[in-house]
Design a protein that fits this description.
Blueprint (H helix, E strand, L loop, with lengths): L7 H9 L5 E4 L5 H12 L18 E5 L1 H5 L2 H6 L17 E5 L13 E5 L8 H12 L1 E6 L10 H6 L6 H8 E3 L8 E4 L2 H11 E4 L6 E8 L4 H10 L1 E2 L4 E2 L3 H13 L2 H13 L2 E6 L2 H8 L8 E5 L13 E6 H4 L10 E4 L6 H8 L11 E8 L3 H11 L6 H5 L12 H15 L6 H6 L10 H13 L5 H9 L2
Length: 480
């Protein structure tokens, strides 16, 4: 009896698939098995029969996936019903089955007359991976599996070129892209002839629409943060952990997040959630968060495992466990059906990453109906800004949040007023010391031994951010 079983939405997708298509389905929709079923049909196999009908002399198959999915042998489980295996002694056929990661895609750019399955969208931009992908697509049959194929038309350029719609990137740019002439770097202002782009995308994008049996419950858990320390960093632009000025917008946001994410109330919230859900996956961003999570007072008998750049441990199997996963290392390419709970200790800047991370427990074969997602958030400016960006399905922009990536907002000033502030700026730029009154303006207590950079740098930042107050003007003029 045939062991290949497909859901209705997978069978419907098979009728639409063709060479060079993108199979787009939500996380946990069964894209891997559908992609293999397409290869099986193309090589002479038959589905829906009582007895297994083998393929007739199938060609070699190469599966390019994430490093984690390769290391955990997840694809081998998907290959088994099709009597395929990367190990020749276990493979029913005489063809070659290769499973490798995107990091090694250049090893296969000279392969010909094979079938490639590209798992997860990694052909964005025009780098080494994309160039290897284009060379492979030219000489082989292929399909691409992705839950998030692209947010902008620029993301589809490599796939459009691989399908022969355009000669190269230059051809696409000349036909569809207008760059902003005011920008100092290549910034897209708008796209032309988007009607054609929509038609081309519809030709290659195969959506797998299906109704999930699970219901997701997303709950925001309110936590506190150290307001005084947070304000001190925003006003002084000083890094207290490395004892030096903060130089970039990204570094300022990281410093603010460290203050917010290190608060003890997050640890308390984690332990309270684990009382009701003893088995949970916890996503985090930074190493200092990992140190906090590893040393919490978990209930007796709780197993702790990690998946990050330091350790690659398997999911625990006990009655009580915590799986600590770093976003970048483990947001995609694996699944877990032994828990119904994910805790987001901190938020990621990327909407795509958050969607992929949420899908680790929302699978077709999960035994749970209700899935619980707990988002730990404070009312700090940085947390609220990240949440706002994610709710709009956009990535958080640190430079835009801080205001350093745009020109000074300023105000409309008369010529005399402009000259006044110009003199203040010149005085500040050539100053080598700051008085106690200046120190008070940027948040330092008078009488403390304050270094010059701790005062002058915040004054410059406030001026560049567009602040024009009498207090700031006097401070800038008093610097010597």
């Amino acid at each position: 009896m045939s062991t290949i079983k497909l859901y209705d939405h997978q069978r419907e997708a098979l009728t639409k698939m063709k060479n060079g298509c993108i199979l787009c389905g939500g996380v946990g929709s069964g894209k891997s098995r559908t992609g293999l079923a397409y290869y099986y049909l193309q090589e002479g196999g038959k589905l829906g029969t009582e007895e297994c009908v083998p393929m007739k002399g199938p060609c070699d198959i190469y599966i390019i996936t994430t490093a984690r999915k390769r290391d955990t042998c997840e694809w081998q489980g998907e290959l088994a019903p099709f009597l395929l295996s990367p190990h020749p002694e276990s493979n029913y056929y005489h063809n070659q089955v290769v499973i490798d990661s995107w990091n090694n895609i250049t090893k296969y750019k000279d392969v010909r007359d094979a079938f490639f399955i590209f798992d997860e969208q990694r052909v964005v931009g025009y780098g080494v991976w994309t160039k290897a992908f284009l060379k492979i697509a030219k000489n082989n049959r292929w399909i691409l599996l992705s839950a998030t194929p692209g947010d902008t038309w620029e993301d589809y350029i490599p796939v459009f070129i691989a399908n022969g719609f355009y000669r190269n990137k230059t051809d696409f740019v000349e036909q569809h892209i207008i760059y902003d002439w005011r920008s100092k770097y290549p910034k897209i202002d708008r796209y032309l002839n988007t009607g054609r782009l929509i038609r081309l995308r519809n030709r290659i994008l195969i959506n797998m629409d299906f109704k999930r049996n699970t219901e997701s419950h997303h709950e925001d858990v309110s936590v506190r943060y150290d307001v005084s320390k947070y304000r001190m960093i925003t006003r002084t632009r000083w890094n207290p952990w490395e004892d030096r000025p903060i130089e970039t917008a990204a570094e300022l946001c990281l410093a603010m997040r460290r203050v917010v994410n290190s608060d003890e109330s997050r640890s308390v919230a984690i332990l309270e959630i684990l009382e009701d859900h003893p088995k949970a996956i916890i996503f985090y961003n930074f190493d200092y968060e990992l140190d906090i999570l590893k040393h919490l007072g978990y209930a007796e008998g709780t197993e702790i495992a990690e998946w990050n750049g330091h350790k690659h441990q398997e999911i625990p199997t006990g009655e009580k466990w915590v799986y600590l996963v770093q976003y970048t290392a483990g947001c995609e390419g694996w699944n877990c059906v032994t828990t119904d709970t994910i805790i987001f200790y901190s938020q990621s800047y990327s909407y795509k990453v958050m969607v992929q991370a949420s899908g680790r427990i929302d699978r077709l074969n999960t035994p749970y109906t209700d899935l619980y997602y707990y988002h730990l958030k404070s009312y700090s400016g940085i947390d609220l800004a990240i949440s706002k960006a994610l709710q709009a399905k956009k990535d958080f922009n640190a430079g835009r949040f801080v205001g350093w990536s745009t020109k000074s907002k300023g105000v409309t000033m008369m010529p005399k007023e402009k000259d006044k502030w110009k003199r203040a700026e010149e005085n500040l730029n050539k100053s080598i010391s700051a008085c106690e009154e200046c120190a008070k303006v940027v948040g330092f207590t008078p009488g403390l031994n304050v270094r010059r950079d701790q005062v002058l740098l915040p004054l410059r930042r406030r001026y560049k951010d567009g602040e024009r107050t009498d207090e700031l003007y006097e401070s800038m003029m008093n610097c010597r």
